[in-house]
Amino acid sequence: MTPTLDDVGTPLRWRERSPDIVVGLLTAGLGLAEVAVRTTWGGESGSVLFVLLVALTTAIARPLPAVALALVWLTGVAQFATGLPLLLTQLLLAYVAFAGARWGSRWVLALSGLSIPLGVLVGGVLLVYGQYSPGILVVQGLRDVLDRVGVSLLAGLPIALLTLAAAWLGGLALRFAGNAAVSRRARVEAEQESARAHRETAQAYEIARLRDEQTRMAHDVHDVVGHSLAVILAQAESGQFLPDADPTALKATLRTIAGTARSSLQDVQGVLSATPVPPGRLQALIDGAGSTGFTVRSHSSGPARPLPPELAAVAYRVLQEMLTNALKHGDRDVPVDVVQRWPAGPHEELELSVTNGIPVDGSPSGPGGGRGLDGMRRRLEAVGGWAQVAVDGARFSITASVPVRS
């Protein structure tokens, strides 16, 4: 597979590995230069392979910190076993301690931290018991100077310990800083995701609200127009039975039709503008139904009271649909009974009932298929009410219950 290229065409894998390559080449260059100098000064040669192993260790310290840590111990054992001299270049192995703390796993982090005092301790023991004598000229010269002033070479061990510990602690500090940055980015991303989810939820809620509002508006328009058309139809049919010699009655019927149409237009405008239903409209509905040629008998019990706007609208639309059903499908020769039962307590129910006669050749639900009744039930259920239909011989009744809250 061809490696991905950046904007200038350089393979990204090589660019990612370039710092490690630079560290390895720097270590190899310094080590080989040191070996060359030691050879010129009369020091031992043959350390080229050892220098290359140290360079490899530093080169893989970042991508493979566990392997690099293992190579540090391996080079130490090989150096002790073969008697190779100490090299100043080996101080660059402090980078392995840094890399183990910065990029290693938790196990590598712990092992690299333990390796620092353990390695210094092993080196001190070897120096004390004379099992290993560094052959580097600089260290040997330093030994001579320290011997003259009465200071042991072991005094350099704390310096080595502090150097390695400082590198390890530096890597640990950067590790914590990197983890904190990752946590901050994750928190920011989580907050952004939460905000996006909140916006989507709010949008979905708003869409659902608008759809519910559209559905409610459609039902309200259906109820208003259906009721008005039922009243107009009943008035027009009643006009057929007026005497030809009675123009006054005909004009009164036409005025009722015009008034009903005008009221319907006002109701539709009220629905579209979300104007609340004014108080006292229940009785106005009943009175309007009584002007259609039907005999409407109104009964009310209990103290009537103002309802909250949302419940007043439900009660109005429900009674409107019930009267519409009675006018459209009822027997004109049978009185329509409208009952309002107001509760005595503040947390009970207003019961509305409309009963009409069934024509001999008609059906209780009429030709509308019951769509208005289904809408009425949904409207009531939305506020915790209910509706039921009953047929008793030639009488059809609808009873609805609307919760009453102050």
Secondary structure blueprint with pairings:
Blueprint: H1 12-40, H2 48-59, H3 65-82, H4 94-103, H5 106-128, H6 137-148, H7 156-239, H8 247-272, H9 281-290, E1 296-301, H10 309-329, E2 336-341, E3 349-357, H11 371-382, E4 386-392, E5 395-403
Parallel strand pairs: 1-2
Antiparallel strand pairs: 2-3, 3-5, 4-5
Q: Which terms summarize this structure?
A:
5 strands, Heat Shock Protein 90, 9% strand, 2 domains, 11 helices, five-stranded mixed beta sheet, alpha+beta, 406 residues
What does it look like?
With 406 residues, the protein is an alpha+beta fold. The protein has two domains: 12-151, no CATH class; 203-403, Heat Shock Protein 90, CATH 3.30.565.10. 63% of the residues lie in helices and 9% in strands. The protein has eleven helices and five strands, in the order αααααααααβαββαββ. It has helices spanning 12-40, 48-59, 65-82, 94-103, 106-128, 137-148, 156-239, 247-272, 281-290, 309-329, 371-382; strands spanning 296-301, 336-341, 349-357, 386-392, 395-403. A five-stranded mixed β-sheet has the order 1-2-3-5-4, covered by helices on one side. Strand 4 and strand 5 form a beta hairpin. Helix 2 (48-59) runs antiparallel to helix 3, helix 3 packs parallel to helix 5 (106-128) and helix 5 (106-128) packs antiparallel against helix 7 (156-239). It starts with 11 loop residues before the first helix and ends with a strand.
